[in-house]
Amino acid sequence: MYYDTIMSGFGGQGIQTISILVATAAINKGMEVSYLPSYGVEKRGGRTDVFMVLSDEEIGSPITNHPLSVIALDTIALDTYQDQLAPGGLLIYNSSLIPGELIVRDDINVIALKCNEEAVAAGNPKLANMIALGAFMERIDFLSYDEIEEAMGEVIPERLKKHIPGNLKAILRGMELARETVQV
Amino acid sequence: MYYDTIMSGFGGQGIQTISILVATAAINKGMEVSYLPSYGVEKRGGRTDVFMVLSDEEIGSPITNHPLSVIALDTIALDTYQDQLAPGGLLIYNSSLIPGELIVRDDINVIALKCNEEAVAAGNPKLANMIALGAFMERIDFLSYDEIEEAMGEVIPERLKKHIPGNLKAILRGMELARETVQV
Amino acid sequence: MNAVFKRPDALTDRETHFCPGCTHGTAHRIIAEVIDEMGIVDDIIGIPGVGCCVFLYHYFPIDVLEAPHGRAPACATGMKRAQPDKIVFVYQGDGDLAAIGTSEVIHAANRGENISIFFINNSVYGMTGGQMAPTTLLGQQTTTTPYGREFRTEGYPIKMAEMLATLEGVAYSARVSLHSPKHVNQAKRAVRKAFEMQVNQMGFSMVEMLSTCNTNWRVSPREALKVVENEMIPYFPLGVFKERTGKDFL
Amino acid sequence: MNAVFKRPDALTDRETHFCPGCTHGTAHRIIAEVIDEMGIVDDIIGIPGVGCCVFLYHYFPIDVLEAPHGRAPACATGMKRAQPDKIVFVYQGDGDLAAIGTSEVIHAANRGENISIFFINNSVYGMTGGQMAPTTLLGQQTTTTPYGREFRTEGYPIKMAEMLATLEGVAYSARVSLHSPKHVNQAKRAVRKAFEMQVNQMGFSMVEMLSTCNTNWRVSPREALKVVENEMIPYFPLGVFKERTGKDFL
Amino acid sequence: MSERKLTKGNIALAEGALQAGCRYYFGYPITPQNDIPEYLSRELPKRSGVFIPAESEIASINMVMGAAASGKRAMTSSSGPGISLMQEALSYMAGSDIPCVVVNIMRSGPGLGGIAPTQGDYMQAVHGGGHGDYRNIVLAPASVQEMFDLTIRAFELADKYRNPAMVIADAMMGQIQEPCRLSPERPVVVPEKPWALTGRRGRKPQLLKSLYLGPGEQEEHNLLMKRKYDTIQQNEVMFETKDLDDAEIMIIAFGTPARIAKTAIGEARKQGIRAGLLRPITLFPFPGDEVARFSGKIKNILVVEMNTGQMLMDVKIAAHRDAAVSFLGRPGGGIPYPDEIVREIKKALKGVTAA
Amino acid sequence: MSERKLTKGNIALAEGALQAGCRYYFGYPITPQNDIPEYLSRELPKRSGVFIPAESEIASINMVMGAAASGKRAMTSSSGPGISLMQEALSYMAGSDIPCVVVNIMRSGPGLGGIAPTQGDYMQAVHGGGHGDYRNIVLAPASVQEMFDLTIRAFELADKYRNPAMVIADAMMGQIQEPCRLSPERPVVVPEKPWALTGRRGRKPQLLKSLYLGPGEQEEHNLLMKRKYDTIQQNEVMFETKDLDDAEIMIIAFGTPARIAKTAIGEARKQGIRAGLLRPITLFPFPGDEVARFSGKIKNILVVEMNTGQMLMDVKIAAHRDAAVSFLGRPGGGIPYPDEIVREIKKALKGVTAA
Amino acid sequence: MAYIKIDRDRCKGCCFCVDFCPRNLITVSESHNRQGYFPAEFDMKNEGRCTACKTCAVMCPDTAIEVYK
Amino acid sequence: MAYIKIDRDRCKGCCFCVDFCPRNLITVSESHNRQGYFPAEFDMKNEGRCTACKTCAVMCPDTAIEVYK
Ligand SMILES: Cc1ncc(C[n+]2csc(CCOP(=O)(O)OP(=O)(O)O)c2C)c(N)n1
Ligand SMILES: Cc1ncc(C[n+]2csc(CCOP(=O)(O)OP(=O)(O)O)c2C)c(N)n1
Ligand code: SF4
Ligand code: SF4
Ligand code: SF4
Ligand code: SF4
Ligand code: SF4
Ligand code: SF4
Ligand SMILES: [Mg+2]
Ligand SMILES: [Mg+2]
Fold it and tell me: Are F106 and F227 contained in the same domain?
């Protein structure tokens, strides 16, 4: 088993949280994980990109320019990584902020999610990232919802634990949306 | 024509002056000269060693461990350089300060000069170096007394010019002593 | 109607990379205003230190040299000696000037180099993420003093304006603040004074400006102004610590 | 009869490499005497700067670390923090402390490092042949100020004892001189005070000693003492600029 | 597996230092290594250690010298510009036989450069840097686990040979997070240091210095150091290989590029090209004998670095005289992706060699 | 011949700087190069120049940066420890395309070392030193005349390529006195410097910097620099040969050891051994092609250095694959006398090669 | 008659102008600007009340304010 | 009864003791010592006049003087 992905958005969108959740769940299963964040220079409002590789075996390159999937939460993310996505790969994008016309690849699987609206619907505008994570979970086979739920307990700091149920709800909603999405 | 020599003594004995005289006279004749002083670390009373090479042609090594002659004005100088002197080379030593027993080489030419006493006799205890220079002049064939006299005019700074006649007298005395010395 | 206040010509219209409410921006503006007012923009060269001010050249449409961290006063020395007829100014943070560059600023000051230094004291290394600076207040938590600065282990906040004022070569040394309109206007007058010292060849001038770093202080921009007023100023008194008059200067 | 004065045990009997009449030798002796009197010779570590004092280890029969030029106060910081129960002292010239090592001494002082520094101010870089130091007097000719030091180009002689005294971390800062018996005895008392500050964990102590360098000043040893008295002291006033008492120190 | 924790490279390194018994850290901030001092500023006080936010890199390394001369395990860390400022003191410590550990999380230079990852400081760490004939022991981790393990190893080697040891890693290695076992492979033993300066009580006075003035003394000291470095070369080489047995081309790379090369090798083999890897773990001592040995068999070598060709020199010196050495270099923050490496492998096999 | 004056190496160098039009000197004393600042402190004021006795080497080199950024020819000089402290700024200047001249009169290291002559800083000057992928142009005079001439050349090359140039010479070259013509071989021309920071009057604002943050910019900048260095390598190599035509062994040495080697070659030839010399005058660019070419014919190479083998690396990389490279190294102030070289020549010819 | 112009996209929403306007003429927008901040706003209805005292502009770290009279 | 002992070979002839002895009891030798300096001398005839005030020893930079009482 080998999987690599790039998750990208602007600071505050919660890219770090969902990627750490995936990494933690994978480690709990005994998988190898490499997780490489790259931050912009500015202190605030900068970008957050995460390069993640998950594997049964020792991980070689921690960085990839042909990821199997890309989660793009804003337009810059899409612009930067759409081209890199491996043929047949999965693009999950936040159609609340990214106009659909920008999707030009036709050799990939695409899931468009109105993350912001769905998040508000799920009760908290900050849940956009969880919606995306849900869709991601639906489409991968090496991690289960239960494993993410377990990871959540470890990753979320004590003072934020109260948000866990909301998070889980949003993930489930994301999964649901992904199931509804017709594969292109 | 190629000649190399090491002149050595303690600071204040005037090694620099006589070696610069030789170097200047040689340059005036169009010879190549390399003149390498090496000072001790201490500010005062340190040692002065001069490595000098004179030649008609471009000079290779500016430093020699088998000089054709050594001028040793004190015991440390003798100790340091006696062994290095080339077989058949010339040792001029200051027998005012260096006991004759210290000369152990029997494959060299030796001139013992009571430089200090001769200097006093010549009118100035500081002339010990000039006595030695005289002996040196007597035994080399690539520079003449006149050439040294000319160099003297250039090398000695204005305020010390009054000492020139004394210097020349001491050189002549050194030459005389060298002529008297029986070659060993 | 006429504009009675607009962006000075000596600032480009590029948006700054500074965090919201960071008074580095204010410092930039007042320096630019003085450059405009004195009409020296064509003959000025700026040397920023390394820190949040490193992009000075994005904002000032003037010649700029990027100096190694802390060494801007030495670079400025070389530059001003090479071009005594140009105006040379240095813009440094407290890490740059009061930590790694201590020696360079002290000796430039002591030699009385005819340069002007604008020193942004925000009590932390802003650009690198808010570590303790020599100017960090006692008790202040930073990323390298997680338990608060303790004088027994990290020493006392250092007062550069006062220390430099003790040096003969210094023509002007002042500390100002950027936390209120009144203080910003005062600060601008100090900037002008510093440049005037240089134009009049009076020697070294330095203006220390108390400035905010709300991001690393982890407070809002508004709260940051209060921190300057209530915590910094009591320890770092404002004032002019040295001012050479024509008469002193033989 | 009994010897009422002899070489202290904390000096070896090796002849020094110092020039005749160089008061580095005097400074060595009074430090050694205090070490003897305080009985700390077994627990002391010395860190000389680079300069004529670099051979400290030849003369003091104690543990010694050779520091890079100017960095002895930083080395001493690391050493004292690692061994707070040992006595650590630094011995630096004015090139070492007031030029290349400016930053290190200021920040060690500012942190209040519990070390003692003996600072030999002889107004030149002695060991390297008498070049201008930051402490060189105005008008003084040196090998790099052949026309005499000029404040417009080389700045003013820097007063380290006064400057350091402005720092909170400093427990003791004094300037003494070695040019007369009375002053030597005063100097010795200052050395003792500095070590006592350290023993009592009061923080940073520094004794600046006006010292001769007759070789590079190109005068006789006797004349050199006069130079200290008549030229140095008028510019570098003697005195205690800071002295922490038990009460100040919380 | 429960003890494997997702850990950032910089943190693993800092924790490695703590577990190696290092209780003295002196440092000045610089991106991308700030996690190290920040972590240690929290942890050292808890473990009765000393953390000083020094006023500069020069002060930092000299504080390290003072603590290390006291017989303690001491460390500093920085990146390019800061490491450049430490060169004088590193030369002093090597010359005075004082052990210490210095970490360089490399960012792109020259000058102020950027904070992007590079390996542009190989030459400085391995050959150049300070003045005089000395060497640093240099270790190059390629995983978070190695950031931890090799830091401990660095302290061991530094003490064993009384010499500065450097851990150098590109900015990626500093920022990456991987599962890591944060306990030492073997129990840590800090050796006795009878040479330490602790006051002369009960013994003769001691001295740590690098100035030798007697005739011939400095040369003798240099030759002694040279012998020490020869011993290190003989005894302490560490390297890793992958798929070399049947390889037709050998990639030589250290740090992150070696990791990327592993993926490239997988790719290449899928395409029927038998590529393999030699990864130097110690850069000094460099596994020159291994390069020679393998390149005797595998005549094609591709060196991959994130610089313009620095380790390349050591490879060229060591390589078998019949070997063809090509080079792929991405300086200033560029990253040699697996597909680029595969392309270079193909080129190299077509006989294109490095300039 | 009347214009040939007995001149000390350091003085010839300082006078060379003046005649190259250098009017800005900033320096901090260190033996054995103090003659340079001392001479310039007397001469610069007479020629409306600026001499500042800086507070440190770091200040010196940064003052040089400021003056050089103003478009002026500026210089500093030092020795080992002081040069180590300049590495950060040298990296900055190379990264910012600012020309300058830095002189290293090498003394024996590492650490404080002694004031005896060595060549222990070759690696630092030529390959290592500061952080990042940059190079210094490095010139190595071997006579007082060259101390003068090559200093002028250093300014020319620095300006031509907008890069720091170093003159490195061992302490002997600094102290030796030889007859020297103190006037330039060719008229000195200081080029226009439209890039200089002189205030924006009449033009767009200008900037000298080394920080590039846009994606790929820093890499691009590095590759540009690499191309510049390739051009330098192509165009600026300087070397001298002696008696190579019929040689059976080629000595490669720079600076004073090359001089000593000449005497040794005379000796060897007297004894019937056909020795010759290749002396690199530029160390970067290194005459690698020449080493390759000659060693294709002359299979025995003896490298002689006053260190433990630093240029040796460059020779090994360049040498023909069939060449046997031996080494004679005297580090820490030792001097390879002519007879010792002759002995090594004989050993080398018997087939003993360097480790 | 005086008024100010706030460059909506330049403003970073620090609120200094809001806090310091002696006549409380500046408010915070309810929508993001291009940079993602909630910028300050000046309602032109207040033209009459603004004294062109420049306090807001003096405090603005981002030179987002122009004052007209 | 007091006197001083000057270590003749240690003395570098700086004359500080000579100059500062309040009773002028110290003179300069007419011959070199081992180091080449003209050392200071104390004539034991002056034993009675020396007060062991230690001034000479305090001023000696070379610790060449011992004082006895
Ligand atoms: C030699 C060196 N050391 C460290 C750094 C990293 N660094 C960059 S900016 C900075 C400090 C910035 O703080 P300050 O000068 O106070 O400026 P601010 O960002 O707070 O305005 C540091 C330590 C560097 N670039 N170079
Ligand atoms: C980094 C470095 N720069 C320069 C030197 C050369 N150097 C040795 S001692 C010294 C100055 C000595 O002057 P000072 O500290 O005043 O001591 P003094 O000899 O006068 O007592 C200098 C510049 C050095 N050893 N290291
Ligand atoms: S980090 Fe601090 S100093 Fe830097 S821009 Fe942000 S608020 Fe200003
Ligand atoms: S050079 Fe000066 S400081 Fe050094 S020993 Fe001689 S007199 Fe003393
Ligand atoms: S100019 Fe004065 S009154 Fe007008 S908006 Fe600004 S602060 Fe308010
Ligand atoms: S002060 Fe400037 S940046 Fe701040 S809210 Fe007002 S207009 Fe916006
Ligand atoms: S002890 Fe006093 S009286 Fe006796 S010799 Fe010395 S100075 Fe003179
Ligand atoms: S003071 Fe000491 S060194 Fe000087 S003359 Fe007297 S005994 Fe000799
Ligand atoms: Mg700051
Ligand atoms: Mg001094």
Answer: yes
Q: Which atom of ligand 7 is nearest to the CA of H49?
A: 3
> What is the rounded distance in angstroms from the CA atom of residue D62 to the CA atom of residue F340?
41
Task: Residue F62: give its domain's CATH number.
Answer: 3.40.50.970
Q: Note the pLDDT of residue B183.
A: 55
Instruction: Answer whether G21 contacts ligand 6 (Cβ < 6 A).
Output: no
Q: Is residue F1 scored above 50 in pLDDT?
A: no
Rounded Cα gap, residues C180 and C186, in angstroms: 10
pLDDT digits (tens, 9 = 90+) for E271-306: 999 999 999 999 999 999 999 999 999 999 999 999
pLDDT of F128 above 90? no
Enter the tokens of residue E40.
Answer: 């240690």
Shortest CB distance from E62 goes to which of D61, D78, D87? D78
Rounded-to-10 torsion of CA E26, E30, E31, E35? 20
Domain ranges of chain G: 3-68
A partners (3+ CB pairs within 8 A) are: C, E, G
For C49-88, write each residue's pLDDT tens digit: 999 999 999 999 999 999 999 999 999 999 999 999 999 9
- Dihedral angle sign, alpha carbons of residues C156, C162, C164, C168: negative
Measured over the CA atoms of residue A160, residue A163, residue A168 and residue A171, the dihedral's sign is: negative
Let me know: does E72 contact D86? Beta carbons within 8 Å: no
Residue type, D220: S
- C236 φ, ψ to 5°? -110, 85
Tell me which residue has its CA closest to atom 3 in ligand 5. G50
Number of other residues whose CB lies within 10 A of the CB of residue C91: 26
Pocket probe mutation, ligand 8, options H25, H38, H41, H60, max atoms within 8 Å of Cβ: H60
Domain that holds residue E284: 239-350
Same domain assignment for residues F161 and F80: yes
Mention every residue, 6+ apart, whose C-beta is less than 8 A from residue E17. E25, E40, E73, E75, E101, E151, E152, E155
Which residues share a beta bridge with F329?
A: F305
Percent of chain D residues past pLDDT 90, beyond the cut: 97
Domain of E332, CATH number, reads: 3.40.50.920
State how beta strands G3-6 and G65-68 pair.
antiparallel
Is a pLDDT exceeding 90 seen at residue F344? yes
- Enumerate residue ranges in chain E where pLDDT < 50: 1-2, 352-355
Which residues, 6+ apart, have CB-to-CB distance to F217 below 8 Å?
A: none
Regarding whether F150 and F48 lie in a shared domain, the answer is yes
The predicted complex's ipTM stands at 0.97
User: Is A27 in Cβ contact with E4 (below 8 Å)?
Assistant: yes
- Sorted by sequence, the CB contacts under 8 Å of residue B146 that are 6+ apart come out as none
| Residue E216 resides in a domain | yes
DSSP state of C230: I
Rounded Cα–Cα distance for residues D65 and D48 (Å): 7
CA H6 – ligand 7 centroid, Å? 11
Instruction: Copy the structure tokens of residue A127.
Output: 């849940």
Provide CATH code, domain H3-68. 3.30.70.20
Q: Which of C219, C217, C114 is nearest to C171 (CA)?
A: C114
Same domain, F251 and F344: yes
In chain F, DSSP assigns E strands to 4-8, 24-27, 50-53, 74-78, 100-108, 114-117, 137-139, 164-170, 177-181, 207-208, 239-242, 249-252, 275-280, 282-284, 300-305, 324-329
CA C233 to ligand 3 center in whole angstroms: 19
Give me chain F's average pLDDT, please.
96
Structural domains of chain D ordered from first start: 24-243 (3.40.50.970)
What CA–CA distance (Å, rounded) separates E51 from E45? 7
**F52/D154 CB distance under 8 A:** yes
For D204, phi then psi, to 5°, come to: -70, 130
Does residue E355 form part of some domain? no
Interatomic CA distance for residues H32 and H22, integer angstroms: 25
Two structure tokens written together for F3: 């214009």
